[in-house]
Write a structure and sequence with these properties.
The complex is a heterodimer of chains A (658) and B (138).
Chain A: E1 8-11, E2 17-20, H1 22-27, H2 47-61, E3 67-75, E4 82-93, E5 99-108, H3 110-131, H4 135-150, E6 154-161, E7 164-173, H5 179-186, E8 189-191, H6 195-203, E9 207-209, H7 221-226, E10 229-239, E11 242-252, H8 261-298, E12 302-306, E13 312-315, H9 317-323, H10 327-330, H11 341-357, E14 366-372, E15 378-390, E16 393-402, H12 404-437, H13 439-490, E17 499-502, H14 503-517, E18 522-525, E19 530-533, H15 535-552, E20 559-566, E21 572-578, H16 610-620, E22 624-628, E23 634-639
Parallel strand pairs in A: 18-20
Antiparallel strand pairs in A: 1-2, 1-5, 3-4, 4-5, 6-7, 6-11, 7-8, 9-10, 10-11, 12-13, 12-16, 14-15, 15-16, 17-19, 20-21, 21-23, 22-23
Chain B: E1 2-9, H1 13-24, E2 29-36, H2 39-49, E3 59-62, H3 71-80, E4 89-93, H4 98-106, E5 111-114, H5 119-134
Parallel strand pairs in B: 1-2, 1-3, 3-4, 4-5
The chains are: A alpha+beta (658), B alpha/beta (138).
Chain lengths: 658, 138
């Protein structure tokens, strides 16, 4: 027996081991030879199986059964690992035929049982996972299976969310009293490396805490202890993207210390990672499809897709409303159903080209076409096409918008524009006619006044002549008003080709004329650019501004300065500045109005149109004009880069023109 | 004493009066002013004047804006006719449009005068015109 390869022992009449061979000592983890001697066979069994072992021994030794076989679990002496064994008990009788000894041969079933157990474990788990609706349920099902097969009392799932681990609300327990432990878990979040789950998360390794009473390593110890927990395990579930979850499992006192448990759980967790990831990817896809469907269905636009042969694949509510076909009726039919007859050939050619070349000319573009409704009516549409490579080659998506209203609005706008242009042309004619027709009677009026003066001047006397003068002045003033109105209406309208205008030269010429008429006034013309624009407009602009300065300056020894500088965006700022009495801040906007003159300035000449004309000239150029300055008047003009300013290399400074 | 025969083509009776009066007051010259109220009348006058003792007028004063035939059209017709081609035609108009001036000169106007509003200036401009053309013929 000593030499037998199979583990074996001899039992006395009470079931105690008399002698065991080396193989049995190895199987049951006995370090020293003879360590089993004196132990009863049932006492070596795993407690739940002890009864079974005892019964078998009784049958043989007490009841005289010649042979009895029993399968059961046995505990290795030192490691406390479980060993599955099939014990074959044979009775040895004494000379009188009474039971005397028993010989027990053991077949080690551990490997077989373990693999069988693992197989069922995995089978069960995959079945549950297969039934799970979500990645979340996959994890819950896994925890449940793990608890069942590894005799853990409770299991829960920690999920990384926003940089911390959060305890999932679904969990599993095989008994009562774990609610507080779970609630305590839900109340905390763990950062990377924090707490048992956080540590497993950080290390990406399964961890076992043999005794949760070690409060330094386990912070939910009170709740855990009340539930009777001794051991805690944290096992990361890792996929290609990293840790997707951490499983936390608890074992009670009576089940604690089972060797190999952590390893088994870890092997399961390894399988779990990719499963959860795949499920999550599906979920994300489904969610995005759901969102897409929701958006598509809610859209007012028609959203359709078609395969490479031009057959409709999808058809949303918007398309149903727009074309009058339901999705059921039209999906699978060719796109030409919604294309007017005369465009179908073009469409077929396009589809053929796409199939040949694999690319779509229209993809990514927006085109305006005609759509065909079910009732045969046509309407204008705007179509944007996208294409993608589907499983069966290139496919298209189209967003179609009914632009009937827009077309109508565009037509109305075009009509309004034409009307406006006509009205403008009419106004222009009117203004010119007015210049002629209003002037004619004034020519007559003043002509007769002249003859009245010549022929009857003496008869009328001094007072009568003064009246004549007043009549003449008023008529001349009216004439001036008409002039300015015409000027204002002309700005921006004359089809003058923009030409290069040397503002320096222009302003110096104007200043010279003004200087000749007003010798006391000093004119200073600074550095001014050459710009592109209407020379007449620029002349009028500076003439008006310089005249304003001269007329409204308020004293004879005035200084009028014209200057320019480049501004960063490529434009120009021009300034016409005087040291006269200035314009009060509250009137600085008003003076740009038509017919605006400041009251109480009886000496003010002019019609009050000058600055209105200036503003219009500047605005036609895309610029702006305003009044600055605390002493005197400083008219600032900003012109955009479009005037293409070129600056002279030399500077002309004070006293250039006087 | 110089003499001048003028054909005034003008539809506004007040302007007719003013031009007549200015020319009548022209010192040292006897001015005769014939008036045509529109282009057709003017052409008629010119055609008839060939058979009259004095011949065609020495100066045509032409308003641009008239009923029936516009001044520029009349100008074209005058320039197109062999008999009147070289006749001095001065356009005398209320229009201040630069375009009108350019167009009139291009169409063959001898001179272009924008009617001054100021009565004194009107009188003197007309008299200058009369003076200039009165001097050119005996």
């Amino acid at each position: 027996m000593e030499e037998a390869a199979s583990p074996a022992c001899v039992l006395d009449g009470h079931g105690r081991i008399i002698v065991a061979n080396r193989a049995l000592e190895v199987l049951l983890g006995v370090g020293v030879a003879g360590g089993l001697t004196g132990r009863s066979l049932p006492s070596l069994a795993y407690p739940p199986d002890e009864e079974l072992a005892h019964a078998a021994v009784q049958q043989v030794l007490a009841e005289g059964l010649d042979r009895c076989q029993v399968e059961g679990r046995w505990v290795r002496i030192h490691s406390r690992e479980l060993v599955w064994g099939a014990w074959d008990l044979s009775l040895v009788r004494d000379r009188r035929g009474r039971p005397e000894l028993a010989i027990a041969m053991v077949r080690d079933l551990t490997e077989m049982k373990r693999s069988d157990h693992e197989r069922r474990f995995f089978q069960f788990m995959f079945k549950l996972i297969g039934e799970a609706d979500s990645s979340h349920q996959v994890l819950t099902a896994a925890v449940q299976t793990i608890c069942h097969f590894t005799r853990c009392a409770m299991g829960q799932v920690w999920l990384p969310a926003g940089g911390v681990l959060v305890c999932s609300p679904s969990w599993y327990c095989s008994g009562y009293g774990f609610e507080k432990l779970h609630a305590a878990s839900e109340a905390v979040n763990y950062e990377l490396g924090e707490g048992l789950p956080g540590l497993a998360w950080a290390k990406r390794q399964p961890l076992l805490l043999e005794d949760i009473r070690d409060t330094g390593r386990f912070d939910r110890a009170i709740a855990a202890q009340r539930a009777g927990v001794r051991e805690a395990m944290a096992v990361p579930v890792t996929g290609a993207e990293g840790v997707v979850a951490v499983l936390e499992l608890f074992v009670t006192h009576e089940r604690a210390g089972e060797p190999g448990r952590l390893g088994r759980i870890a092997r399961v967790a390894e399988e779990l990672g990719p499963l959860v990831e795949r499920r999550r990817a599906n979920e994300a896809l489904a969610a995005s499809q759901e969102r897409f469907a929701a958006v598509t269905e809610a859209a007012v636009d028609a959203i359709v897709s078609a395969d490479s042969s031009g057959r409709l694949l999808t058809w949303n509510n918007g398309a149903e409303r727009m074309f009058g076909w339901t999705a059921d009726e039209i999906v699978g039919r060719p796109l030409t159903v919604i294309i007017p007859e005369r465009f179908r050939q073009l469409h077929s050619d396009g589809i053929a080209r796409v199939r040949r070349t694999g690319t779509s000319k229209l993809a990514g573009q927006v085109v305006e076409l005609s759509g065909l409704r079910r009732d045969g009516s046509e309407f204008p549409i705007e179509l944007s096409i996208g294409s993608w490579n589907g499983p069966e080659g290139i496919a298209f998506s189209g967003v179609l918008r009914d632009i009937t209203e827009r077309k109508r609005a565009e037509a109305a706008l075009a009509g309004a524009n034409r009307e406006l242009e006509r009205a403008n042309a009419e106004l222009e004619t009117l203004v010119y006619s007015a210049s002629h027709d209003l002037k004619s009677p004034m020519v007559s009026l003043l002509g007769y006044l002249e003859y009245l003066r010549l022929d009857y001047g003496e008869v009328l006397g001094r007072e009568g002549n003064r009246y004549l003068d007043r009549m003449a002045d008023s008529t001349m003033y009216m004439q001036q008003l008409i002039h300015d109105l015409i000027d204002l209406s002309r700005v921006g309208r004359s089809g003058v080709e923009p030409t290069e205008v040397d503002l320096g030269r222009l302003v110096r010429a104007i200043a010279e004329d003004a200087g000749a008429a007003n010798p006391a006034i000093e004119f200073r013309v600074g550095r001014l650019p050459v710009v592109t624009g209407d020379p007449v407009g620029f002349r009028q602009l500076f003439t008006n501004l310089i005249e304003n300065a001269v007329h409204h300056g308020g004293h004879a020894d005035l200084v009028v300065a014209v200057d320019g500088r480049a501004v960063p965006d490529g434009g120009v700022e021009l300034s016409v500045r005087d040291n006269g009495r200035g314009i009060p801040r509250e009137h600085r906007e008003r003076v740009f109005g038509v017919f605006e003159r400041l009251e109480g300035t009886s000496s003010s000449a002019g019609t009050g149109m000058g600055l209105a004309i200036c503003r219009k000239i500047v605005e036609v150029l895309g610029g702006g004009i305003g009044i600055e300055g605390d002493r005197g008047t400083d008219v600032r003009i900003v012109l955009p880069a479009a005037v293409g300013a070129r600056w002279p290399s030399h500077e002309l400074t004070a006293g250039a023109s006087r | 004493m110089r003499s001048l025969r003028v054909l005034l083509v003008e539809d506004d009776p007040d302007h007719v009066f003013l031009v007549r009066r200015a020319l009548a007051d022209l010192p040292g010259a006897a001015v005769t002013v014939e008036v045509a109220g529109d282009g057709e009348q003017a052409l008629e006058r010119l055609a008839r004047s060939r058979f009259e003792a004095g011949g065609p007028p020495q100066l045509v004063l032409l308003d641009l804006k008239m009923p029936r035939m516009a001044g520029l059209e009349l100008l074209g017709r005058i320039r197109a006719d062999e008999a009147t081609r070289d006749l001095p035609v001065v356009v005398l108009t209320s229009s201040e449009r630069q375009e009108d001036r350019e167009e009139a000169l291009r169409q063959g106007a001898t001179w272009f005068v924008c009617k001054p509003t100021d009565g004194r200036r009107f009188r003197s401009e007309i008299q200058q015109l009369g003076d200039r053309w009165a001097g050119s013929t005996p």
